[in-house]
Model the fold of this input.
Amino acid sequence: MKLLDERVWALFKRNWYQTLTYWSVFFSFGLCIAFLGPTILDLRCQTQSTLQQITWVFFSQQFFLLVGSSLGGLFKKTLLSSLSALFSCTLIISLVFAIIPLCHHVILLSIAMAIAGKAMGVIDTIANLQLVKMYQRDSAIFLQALHFFIGLGALVSPLVADPFLAEDSCVLGTNWTTNSSSSSSADLHHLRSSMAGHGTALHNISQYPLHTEGTVITRVSYAFWIMALINLPVPAAVLTLMYYERLLPCFSNSPRLLAKDSSPSSAEDSGQGHGSVFNCCNPAKLRGRPPTFFLLHILGGAILFITDGIIGSYAGFVYTYAVSPPLLMGHKTAGYLDSVFWAAITAGRLASIYLSYRYTAPRLLTFSLVGVILVQCMLLIFYTSCVFLFIGTCVLGLCISSVFPSLLAFIEDLLNYKGCATTVLVTSASTGEMILQLIVGSVIHSQGSYAFLLCCTIASFIGFCLFLLLLYVQHIHRNGDTDSTKNTDMKEKPNPGGS
Done:
């Protein structure tokens, strides 16, 4: 059995270099999004700041990622602007990696992470947009692969950072010794695991006072310089694509990868269709649209708000839940849960490349969302089992992994690739990842760690109900399109019995 039919394979061969380039920029995205959690304590030492101060770095990255996602559509009007933005953003990420060791104040570090976050948001929107434009009805397969590379990058950066992380306190005071440090190696491991989810579990770690004055002995700078070098081939690949597409003024005679009319996106390079979230709300563009057009955007965005929020919340709080009663899991063992979750998401997206070819997006989404609900309910039932927490974490990652790329391809197909779906969905997902974590963190702080599972389960039920409503709206929307097409055909058809 062939993995891809000849038509899809021929389409990939015609666009292979562009596709691989967009995949590589998502590796850069994943590389940047996952390093902050493991390295945050060493960065706290480097900036000689408190835990409360250093968590603003997380907020800075997440907020400007949201800003970049909402503005990313502005760069899609031409292939030149899209690739120029991708080149700039991937190069910025390497530069940020290189200058982070030079940021010795938390404000400077927050500014650097804000710049990186905005670059990540632009990458998120543009790469999704370009693949959807390029492959249209076949985009689901290639979007699954695109999001696999986020997971791959997210797995690489902690591995690069790990050998350079401090085993004990990385700030040594003049009037105390290492043995009298307020935090042991086990405490530092606990702190790192607690802060892995974008620093949202601050209320659980503020009990650990850490020194801010003294001699900094961290070696984490080497990890950032290595990641800067690892990321450098990505902007080089984008620049090469610009060369082959004759988009560099000094290389106008370079070979062209695609004929002008061979890409499905050529018809849309006029700048119509996608844009920033603000451009999508332009009343002139929305006039005459049926109500279902808006409902599809709203429901799709709401589903991704919830599912990406679940991913962020689970990654952020599963460690906190594991080390709290009734599980009371060991710090080192619980620290593996976050890695298991992201590894399962990466594996799920790899498997979904094939599944999205074999099954339609609605069927794949139904299976995924039902699976998420079932595993969350099982986690609630077996809430005292450490073994099942690992099993459930793995299954949850596998089930939820394909929701974003499948839903994006589905919504764009419903709207015939003429709306602002990609920009709206990417922005909604980024918003959910940031907002839902804050909500879940507040509930855990007031109600206890068990509320973490309860919140995620309730959110998954709401997400599935919204998906059922989405299926109903898409049925109405397609029937409306069919009726309007029939009416147009009848108006254009000549009347044979006319005078």
Summary: The longest strand covers residues 171-172. The chain has a mean pLDDT of 81. The chain has two domains: 13-271, 284-484. The radius of gyration is 24 Å.
